[in-house]
Structure formats: C-alpha cells, structure tokens
Specification:
single chain; mainly beta; ten-stranded mixed β-sheet; 22 strands
C-alpha cells in the first residue's frame, strides 16, 4: 500500500487527481445545485486534527488512524491552514498556507511547507460538496494523487469547519477527515478594517491621492489617483487593484525591517483585479497615441485591465497571484509595502506615504 501519511498530505494540500468518480453523489454530479449562500465564514482556519478510515475495495474495514499536527511558528502566520474567501455563485477561493509536521507513531513524520501558497477556486453545491476546482497557484510542493476522487465535502462546525475527502484506487477506499479551528484574527483585521486615505501629495511631476479600503479578508479598493495640480482638482488617470484572502501574519518590530521604528505585521493576499483608467480627454489621446500598455482603445472614465502587462517599462502584477506585504501602524496612520515575490525589507514611512484612517 502507498504510504498513507504521504497520501493524506498530498490530498489535503496540493493534489491533482487522475480521475473523478461519475456515480450519483460524486463531486462531479451534473445534477447538483450550486451553493447560493456562504455556509462557511470567511477567514483563516488552522488545521487541528487529521484522521483516516481505510476500507478494502469490498467494503470491509481495513483500519483507521489519527495524526498529530505540529505547527511551525517560523512561517507566516505560524500555523498550517486554509484561508477561506467566498466569491459568490458557489465559489470559495481557498489559500493553503503555513507549515507543519504531521506524524503518526507507526507511519512516521511528514513535513509540508506552504510558504509558496496553493490557491484554488472550489465550487460547492448546497451540501458543501465540491463540483469543480480551478487551480490558480500550485504550492506546497505540488503533487499528483493517483486515486479516483469520489467526493470532497466542506462543512461548517461550531468554531470551525471540516473537510472530508473520499478517494479510492483498485484496492482501497480512503476517507480523510480534516478538522479546522477558525482563527481569531479580529484584532489584526480590525486594525486595518475601514478606509485609509492620503492627502494630496507630490509624486514626480504630478500629485496623487491614494485610497485603501479593507473589509474583512478583502481589500475592496486600492486606488492611486493622479492629478496635474497641487490641490488634486484636475484628474488625469488612476490605478485600481482589489485583493482577497487577506491573511494577517506575524507581528514585527520595524527597527529590524529597514524602517524608523514602530510595530506592525506581515500579510499575504491574492490580487483579483488590476486596472487603469484615463480621467481626462488629453490623457485618453496620449494613451491611444502612445499605445499605453500596448492598447489603443482607451476610453474616457473606462477602466481597462493592465494585469500582467508592461506599460512604459513598468511591469504590472497579473491577477490570481500571492502578494506579500508589511504594514506599520502608528495610531491612525498606516504605512504599507507590497511585493509579488517575497516579504519586503521595510516600509516607506515619509509624509508622502501616510494613509490616515477616515
């Protein structure tokens, strides 16, 4: 038999199944009704228990077991788990993050490092059973699970959720149960909740106002609006981005992170949209004449995606990737820095970088 502990790890974090069962009630059932209302609250969920029941293919019980989960505090956010973010129309965006060692006295130890997150959109039916899965980012080492997936079901429980996966091969059927405890990130998320805005500040030859709005685990607006005058009365153009699966990580002290002191946190999130909008007739003309971002169909006050594009030598982030950030909070003043590859070394904390709570 294939190493059961390895199968459990792959199935939980990063598996690609070679086939899906077609019988009634399976995760691929075409008659399933898509979930219309979120059954599991948005937030981060820590893996607290793993168990498996194994059946022979004739239905008789082969055995069962449970596993100890030892989380690593060295990887943000200090535990192994799921970030759940309801997208509507039955879809949850699930970000798998963190690091832990899962062990059993008979089977040994396996460590899974999800510093590179797995990100996927799972469509659930009204019973919480997965009917479709789209892999957005492969992390946690990847892997192929040489089993037939029979069902994959998410359910809310008091204080958390469970995920039950049933999969089989020609000899055995495995039923894995993963139990999660919802993490209380209220303190950190409350710190960022709401709208933050800069004053009209100089930015090269122009002036800008930045507005950031955070709602739960979503950044619903990150707007950089540029103007030709110091009072920011004459609009020229703006950049807008939105993010989901916001996960507040370890607390840090900024005198060790290249800034001038203070405290804050690491964070990760997934970028969902990245757009540019021309806000004046002269800007539209310039953008079209110069093929801004490779496009010549810019329209006044109409946002257009620049995700993954190069615009005048600047590479703009594609969507559906993990963004790593730091933030420094000083009373009602917020300073941020993001990167698409790793955590930044610090934040810019000058007057032009100040976002004030509205």
């Amino acid at each position: 038999m294939k190493n059961i502990l390895q199968i459990i790890l792959i199935s939980f974090f990063a598996f690609t199944v070679i086939s899906c069962a077609k019988e009634s009630g399976s995760s691929s059932s075409s008659t399933a009704t898509t979930m219309s209302t979120a059954s599991i609250a948005d937030g981060n969920y820590k893996l607290t228990a793993v168990s498996v029941i194994i059946y022979n293919i004739d239905g008789s019980n082969y055995g069962s077991g449970s596993f100890q989960v030892n989380h690593s505090s060295s990887v943000t956010p200090g535990y192994l788990g799921y970030g759940m973010s309801w997208q509507g129309s039955g879809v949850y965006r699930i970000t798998v993050f963190g690091k832990a060692t899962i062990s059993n006295t008979q089977l040994g130890n396996e460590t899974l490092d999800c510093t590179t997150n797995t990100i996927k959109d799972n469509t659930l039916d009204t019973n919480g059973k997965m009917t479709a899965e789209t892999i957005i980012q492969t992390g946690c080492g990847g892997g192929v699970l040489e089993l037939t997936l029979e069902s994959d079901t998410y359910s809310a429980i008091t204080g958390g959720m469970t995920r039950v996966v049933v999969a089989s091969n020609s000899s055995y059927r495995y039923q894995y149960t993963y139990t999660f405890l919802k993490q209380n990130t209220t303190a950190s998320n409350t710190e960022l909740e709401g709208t933050w805005k800069s004053s009209c500040v100089s930015s090269g030859s122009r002036y800008k106002i930045r507005t950031l709005t955070v709602s739960g685990t979503n950044v619903t607006a990150d707007r950089w609006e540029y103007h030709s005058d110091s009072s920011c009365a004459n609009d020229e153009y703006r950049f807008d981005a939105t993010y989901s699966s916001l996960s507040i990580g370890n607390a840090i002290t900024f005198d060790t992170y290249g800034s001038s002191g203070g405290s804050g946190h690491k964070l990760t999130m997934t970028i969902d949209t990245n757009t540019f909008t021309s806000l004046s007739a002269s800007e539209v003309t310039w953008d079209n004449n110069n093929s801004w971002c490779g496009e010549t169909d810019w329209v006044l006050n109409t946002a257009q995606s620049i995700a993954g594009k190069t615009c005048d030598g600047d590479d703009f982030w594609n969507t559906n990737i993990t963004i790593y950030g730091l933030y420094l909070l000083d009373g009602n003043k917020l300073f941020l820095n993001y990167s698409s590859s790793s955590y930044p070394s610090g934040v810019d904390a000058g007057d032009n970088d100040t976002l004030t709570k509205q």
